[in-house]
Design brief:
Helix 2 packs antiparallel against helix 3. The protein has helices spanning 7-11, 19-33, 43-57, 60-69, 79-83, 88-92, 103-107, 128-133, 279-284, 343-359; strands spanning 120-126, 135-146, 161-163, 172-179, 182-189, 198-200, 212-223, 232-235, 252-258, 265-267, 270-278, 286-290, 297-301, 310-313, 329-336. A hairpin with a 2-residue loop joins strand 4 (172-179) and strand 5. A 4-stranded mixed beta sheet has the order 10-11-15-14. A 3-stranded mixed beta sheet has the order 1-9-8. The chain has a two-stranded antiparallel ribbon with strand order 2-7. The protein is an alpha+beta fold. It contains 10 helices and 15 strands.
């Protein structure tokens, strides 16, 4: 096992950094490595390391213990001790990023209380102009949600409910045993009532006793300026309903994809386009009128431009996520060599060839 890195080194700050410096460093790094945005191998482990460093250094008492004794000073803390008091939703909510069903379940494999419903994913395809301006987009999805007729109970209105004798109404099956002086407790969903904690005399006629109904939904999501290809925007509690009584629904993740555009190819924040240029224009130089996201612009093709040359228009691409710089617009030059020549063109090309040979 590799030794833990120094928390200040992890966040890239000095040991006398103030609370704002700690928060700013964490936010920038966490946005970079958040698994909803960064799908590279090791990104999630890096994110956990960053979150742990922030959890310690953002708390004055934990930071003091760490400053005095290093990692040994915080070795006794559980994940709940470290992360329980941090409002991660406040840090990431405006970016559409979050922790799905909570930090422990999603990143540390911990869960408390009834199981959440499954998360859902839906793809929204946006034009390149939306990446530039940001704004609202409408998404449609079909999901199972709480039956309005029975309130999710699965029971017909007015019928009696009976507490499950197996679990006593808890909806959980608890098995406890002692091994070598250590008490072990295992909690699972009650197999008799399937987590509901009760039985009913008559099933709800609307949902057939499942407590769920499928329905079509239309939601509006806010696309941030510079939205990256494949970015996941989280809509809390719009996933599938929980399979257990009292459990929260899952989350909806809206995956942002760029709609095809005949004018450009997107590569990150940069745009690419291929322009055909006649041979004589490449030799003598010319000016082209080409499309851009800011309207048509002029492109100077220098004299002597070679096949597959790349010309660049700075800051004519897409804005980077989070603001700041804008990408570039690259134009690949495809030089067109005439396939058929008129008699006059052939004569001129022959003269040109003779001149080039004399010059050589």
């Amino acid at each position: 096992m590799e030794p833990k890195r120094d928390y200040y080194e992890v966040l890239g700050i000095s040991r006398d950094g103030d609370k704002k410096a700690i928060k700013d460093a964490f936010r920038a790094l966490a946005l970079k490595y958040h698994p909803d945005r960064n799908k590279e191998p090791g990104a999630e482990e890096r994110f956990k390391e960053i979150a742990e460093a922030y959890a310690v250094l953002s708390d004055p008492k934990k930071r003091a213990e760490y400053d005095m004794r290093g990692h040994a000073g915080v070795a006794g803390f559980t994940d709940e001790d470290l992360f329980g008091g941090i409002n991660f939703e406040d840090l990431f909510g405006d970016m559409g990023l979050g922790f799905g069903g909570g930090l422990f379940e999603r990143f540390f494999g911990r869960r408390a209380g009834p199981r959440r419903g499954r998360d859902l994913e839906v793809v929204v395809r946006i034009p390149l102009e939306r990446v530039v301006t940001g704004g609202e987009e409408t998404v449609r999805l079909s999901r199972a949600s709480e039956c309005p007729a029975c309130g999710g109970s699965g029971a017909k209105d007015g019928t009696a409910r009976h507490v499950c004798e197996v679990c006593g109404g808890s909806g959980q099956h608890v098995r406890q045993e002692v091994k070598e002086g250590v008490s072990l407790k295992q909690i699972s969903t009650c197999p008799s009532c399937r987590g509901r904690g009760y039985f009913t005399d008559e099933l709800c006629p609307e949902c057939g006793g499942t407590g769920e109904m499928s329905r079509e939904e239309k939601l509006t999501v806010q696309i941030p300026v510079g939205a990256e290809e494949g970015m996941a925007l989280r809509v809390p509690r719009h996933g599938m309903a929980s399979p257990e009584t009292g459990g929260a629904p899952g989350d909806l993740f809206v995956i942002v994809r760029t709609a095809p555009d005949a004018r450009f190819e997107r590569h990150g924040a940069n745009l690419w386009r291929t322009e055909r240029v006649e041979l004589v224009d490449a030799a003598l130089g010319s000016k082209l009128r080409i499309p851009s996201l800011d309207g048509d612009v002029d492109l100077d093709v220098p004299a002597g431009t070679q096949p597959d040359s790349i010309l660049r228009l700075r800051s004519k691409g897409l804005p980077a996520f989070g603001g700041g710089t804008r990408g570039d617009y690259f134009i690949r030059i495809d030089i067109h060599i005439p396939e058929k020549l008129s008699a006059e063109e052939r004569q001129l090309f022959t003269q040109l060839r003779d001149l080039s040979r004399k010059g050589g």
